[in-house]
Description:
Layout: E1 9-14, H1 30-39, H2 77-88, E2 90-95, H3 107-126, E3 132-137, H4 143-153, E4 159-165, H5 178-187, E5 191-194, H6 212-232, H7 235-238, E6 244-247, H8 253-268, H9 279-286, E7 287-290, H10 300-310, E8 315-316, H11 339-354
Parallel strand pairs: 1-2, 2-3, 3-4, 4-5, 5-6, 6-7, 7-8
Helix pairs in contact: 3-4, 4-5
Amino acid sequence: MATQVATGLVDCDIHNTPASEARLRPYLAERWRRHVERFGTRTRHGLATGYPYPKATPGAARVDAWPPDGGPPGSSLQFLREQLLDPLGVAFGILNCLAAGAGQTDPELGAALCRAVNDWQLAEWLEPEPRLRASIVMPYDDGELSAAEIDRLAGVSGFVQALMLVRTLEPIGRRRYWPIFEACERNGLPLGIHFGGYAGHPISSSGWPSFYLEDHTGMAMSFQAQLVSLVFEGVFERFPGLRVVCIEGGVAWLPALAWRMDRVFEELRDEVPELSRRPSEYLREHVWLTTQPVEEPERPEQLLQVFERIGRDRLLFATDYPHWDYDDPARAFPAPLPARMREGVYAGNARALYGLPAGPSSPAGEG
């Protein structure tokens, strides 16, 4: 089987979510419980008051991903075991919870909501299931509050990266985000940057798009803009230990972006004299990408060539469970991966990046 790896599959993008807002209340401080009950929450993003997903795919989910005992997709640990962890032989799965407090107009409320989500993840997902690891959600547009949350949880078993969404209030290389990079470097944690976000800005430079299709397709351009910002604002020069994972943004655009950045840098490098290397060198050293949603050219060998350009050690397999564009590991790529990269993409690269144990983890209740 093309996906078989000796140490078990590592899935780097699994989405868990609370069954309801009430599920998080035990983890919220009383002051913030009262606030949410009386005033609710307020985000900057226009889509937050509309319907952000196509009506044919409620919750952006697979049609079979709704737990039989109720709740939205991704809310049942037992159903996750039955539908993903057990049948695919997942040794480790990385949880990226998108139901957090990022994008709140009140940063203190955003921090409280993120804290509640993280405590909920620890109590209801990480402790009962040893195969799972989680990302630290944070109010990423406030660097200081985010750094404090990273420091609070960095030493807690099960948390393996910090998480932000790709659409931010400002370009990510700006100083407001530097405390996040410093905290990640200080604690030895990668920074995951995931599809989505509630920045209040349209994804287009010309205004809000008409269709979800435009918004969804354009997300890859957001990832490119953020990497350009990280490089040219000198983030990787200032934080040489920072590791960045681009999650659910595609992969094939990276080589062309690196070439373009190198070419422009040759002409304009005097504008950023603090950079000591070509942009492509920073990208090669500091950036990883998850494979979902992978591009599928008509000639499969072209995708493998792109993988080699990126670096086979920088690719991390992901299913994006339980979302509608989920990638089954047996059919994720237009052709089976060659042996030289299979083990790394499906497991080894993630184990090295996240410091996961060499052997497969035991299911809950075993070992």
